[in-house]
Structures are given as structure tokens and as C-alpha cells.
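Ticket closed. Logging final result for Protein disulfide isomerase-like.
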Amino acid sequence: MRLRRCRFISFVFFTLLWEVRLELTRETWDDAVEGKKVFARFYSAWCSHSQAMRLSWEKLAEAFRDDAKLLIADVNCTGAGKELCDDMGVYSYPTMLYGDWHDLVDYEGGRSYEILKEFADALGPPCSPAAVQHCNQQTRSLIANYTEMGLPILEEFILQKEAAIEQADAEYKVSLQQLEQAHNDLMSRKRAALDKLADFKFRAMKAVRDSRKLKHSGD
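Final structure:
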């Protein structure tokens, strides 16, 4: 099934909040999802496809509001959740991800409440170091390896990964600033060229031409 999505096309962001849903950001994501199954919608307030499924998603969030094992969440990619969406590599809306909090995959199913509810009901209990019986074999092996690893070494690996993530984010921001500057420079050059070409003489030429054409058509 090819799902309809809106793509990021503007630097102007709009925020629209609804009371029922849990809105997550980069700062709140880890604490909210840890140890749970997650079904998250990454959306844009200006995207018509995001708006079209809003009521179904709100109803789903209400249905699982008090569920201790499954988290239904929203991330506003053109609002407070933009940095989190960038971290997740989400640039089309809505994008829905599901699964264990540390291993989310794309949801490609229907968007009606009935289909979403049936899918959410079928999600099993969360996988975690404290509940490896709910994990697949690959995740079990990773958890076993990291559990046997000395804590200082594990901490060092995590610090290295976090530093690499911060570096990638910093490089992205620098590149974005360079692109914006290049765009501004091109616009300035364009305006200067147009101002030079579309001068008084040019406007006079057009005025005379239009006048002569009008006179000719009246003869």
C-alpha cells in the first residue's frame, strides 16, 4: 500500500496541539518510551494527510491512555519535535513507527481507527533487558553481550556514540546555514541583475511597444 504523505517544503512552521495526545520532543522521548512498546506518529500541522487522520489517532491515544506497556505518542515535526524528527530521519508526514522503544520500524497499514486499534492490540509486550523473553534472537544476543561487558567500557561506547551524533548534528546545522547563505546570495544577485536590466529605458521600450500595438489594433 502506498501511503499518502506530505514532504517538508517550507522553513515556516506551524504548531497545532490537541489535548488527548502525548506530544514528545527530543528532551522527553527517552524517558517516555523506555521499556515500552511504542506506536508513534510523526506529523506536520500543515500537512493535509496528517490532519486527515487526526481524529482516528486521537481516538487511539484515548483508548490506550492508561496502558502501562504500550505508548501511543505524537511528534510534531514542524514544531517542538523537529529535532527529534531530524534524529529519526523523518522528513515526510505523517510517518508512523512502531515496535520496541529501541528498535522502531515503519508502519505501512491503514489509518482508520478500526485498523489502527486492531494493529495496536496485536502488538506484544515490550522487549527490554528485564524481559528478554519478549525479544527476538538478535536483540537477545545484543543484550547478553552488553550485560557481560564492564560498565565503564559500556559507558565509554555510549559516550562515543553520543559524541558522534552531536558531531553529525552540528555538521548538519553548519551545512544548512551555508545553504541558506548561498540561497540569500543568489537572490541578491538575481535582484541586482533584474534591477539593472529592467531599468527606465526597458520600461519605456515596453510602454512604447504596447502603445503602438494598441494604436495599430485600432486602425
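Confidence is low (pLDDT under 50) at residues 8-19. No further action required.
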